[in-house]
From TrEMBL:
UniProt protein name: Olfactory receptor
Homology family: Belongs to the G-protein coupled receptor 1 family.
Organism: Equus przewalskii
Coarse class of the protein's main subcellular location: membrane
Localisation: Cell membrane; Membrane
Entry keywords, A to Z: Cell membrane, G-protein coupled receptor, Membrane, Olfaction, Receptor, Sensory transduction, Transducer, Transmembrane, Transmembrane helix
CDD domains assigned: 7tmA_OR51-like
The gene coding this protein: LOC103553277
Its membrane topology: Multi-pass membrane protein
Domain G-protein coupled receptors family 1 profile per the UniProt entry, residue ranges: 43-293
Amino acid sequence: MSRLNDTNIEVLRFLLIGIPGLEKRHIWVSIPFSTVYLLSLLGNFTVLFFIKTEPNLHEPMYYFLLMLSISDVGLSLSSLPTTLGLFLFGINEICAAACFAQEFFIHLFTVTEASVLSVMAFDRYMAIHNPLRYSTILTTSRVIKTGVLLTSKNIILILPLPFLLQWLTYCHQNLLSHSYCLHQDVMKLACSDNRVNVVYGLCAALSTILDSLFITFSYIMILKMVLGIATPREQLKALNTCISHICAVLLFCVPMLSAAMLHLFARDLSPMIHILMADVFLLVLPLINPIVHCVKTHQI
């Protein structure tokens, strides 16, 4: 960070607020948070273990599920150190470099989750549209190449964010709104021009919006094909293969869109609402995803 003049103090550390009004009850707040983290990691590592060890799960659909579980594990581990550090041990400070690194990983795994869900939508479309050629179109090598391509694209997309934050000047205000670092949260504390950060943040968000539109388009095509099937029983059978993915998409999109709408149109609401919405997205999503897929996927 650049050194400020004598009238300002350079901020080298940020303060994490956790949940406003519950500062004296952090040890009790840590119990549900620790439980959610433990269960989400246990659930996703279980999915990863079975997909890796069971030969009958070595198919494209389960490889995409493996990518989704890796994203969920990354999302949980990205926010876990500061969240449990704050609630369990009262550590409410984070240095600027660690904050920017945490912000990078949280946003990286978020956009990766959206990318994997969009590819899984295409996977479901191919399985219903052309089931006889499904295994020849989506081969293992193509799935691996797709995973590498998506990961590379997302790293390139998100990598500038921490550097853009580092180039900003921070003075006086250093109190963050959450128990972890988010780009939009840190950016608001800058006392220098942050328009570049705003514009690039919107461009990064556009990637997730495009993924959501692709998922919507895929399901419009799937619904069109399903309605063309002769018998209701076969229609339900085709739709049943998409249930777990639809649940995963809703779990991802509903909290994210709700938080975005609240941020844009309901800024006068209690900060507690905004904080809880962000916590639901980062904590509940990795917890529910493995449960949904294990319940709805007979092989697992």
